[in-house]
Design a protein that fits this description.
By secondary structure, the chain is α+β, with helices and mostly antiparallel strands. The protein folds into two domains: about 140 residues, Sandwich (Jelly Rolls); about 60 residues, Arc Repressor Mutant, subunit A, CATH 1.10.10. Helices cover about 40% and strands about 30% of the residues. The protein is built from seven helices and nine strands, in the order ααββββββαααβααββ. The strands form two sheets. Strands 1, 2, 3, 4, 5 and 6 form a six-stranded antiparallel beta sheet that branches. A three-stranded antiparallel beta sheet has the order 7-9-8. Helix 3 packs across helix 4 and helix 4 runs antiparallel to helix 5. The N and C termini lie far apart (about 50 Å). The model has no long low-confidence stretch (mean pLDDT about 90).
């Protein structure tokens, strides 16, 4: 499948940071909703860039509950896999779309040789570290209400956000059952703590 980099760049300007060597090695791949691209324990062979649709890193607990550790609609996913012998989570598609595959040997070589790309990669990792710290802090909170309000503050803008996923998927990202999420949202709204208008949820100041 041919890759039209000019067209992709108009939709995702961040792709401009991808050097020519990596572009020449890239492979374009479709994925279907519900597809598992990699399972925990699989050996990573490529870095993945999500073009559209949605990929998630998920882990299933012993009790069967699912925790979403990363959700990506645009950009790299599972960055830590570059230095790992195996995936530590499943890579699953929440919505159908396309991705770019960059073979790991080429990716590593370009990082070593291209200073500008290396700096862009380090900025990307720093952003992910900040997101993961916020997520770990949120999952450490004891009550569902605290996790919801923390999410609004860290992931929203001025305490408000447009939820980009189903509430069931949001519950998994918060480490809650969807029943607990729905019940807590209703209570927070009735108490005047938040406002809900369709997919928009806002903290009441």
């Amino acid at each position: 499948m041919n890759i039209d980099w000019d067209s992709l760049g108009r939709g995702q300007p961040a792709l401009a940071a991808i050097p020519t060597t990596l572009r020449e090695a890239a492979q374009l791949r479709r994925f279907a909703a519900g597809e598992t691209l990699h399972r925990r324990g699989d050996r990573p062979t490529a870095m993945l860039w999500v073009l559209d649709g949605e990929l998630r890193l998920v882990r299933t607990a012993i009790d069967g509950s699912v925790l979403i550790l990363q959700r990506v609609r645009s950009g790299f996913i599972a960055e830590a896999s570059m230095e790992a012998g195996a995936y530590h989570c499943d890579v699953m598609a929440a919505a159908a779309g396309h991705l770019l595959r960059f073979p790991l040997p080429v990716f590593r070589a370009v990082l070593e040789q291209d200073a500008a790309f290396r700096q862009a990669w380090m900025r990307r990792l720093a952003q992910e570290v900040r997101k993961l710290r916020a997520q770990n802090e949120r999952l450490g909170l004891h009550s569902a209400a605290e996790r919801i309000l923390h999410y609004l503050e860290t992931e929203g803008r001025d305490g408000a956000l447009i939820l980009p996923q189903s509430r069931k998927a949001w519950a998994a990202e918060l480490g809650l059952s969807h029943e607990v999420l729905y019940r807590t949202l209703r209570r927070l709204r009735e108490d005047g703590v938040i406002q809900i208008d369709g997919n928009r949820i806002a903290r009441v100041s």
